[in-house]
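Structure ticket #2291
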Amino acid sequence: VLAARSQGAHGVMVGRAAYR
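Resolution: structure written out below.
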């Protein structure tokens, strides 16, 4: 998740889904 969040927009989408 951390690596994805570093990407930016993509990280927000992946991070949000993971947090859910």
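Closing remark: The mean pLDDT is 60.
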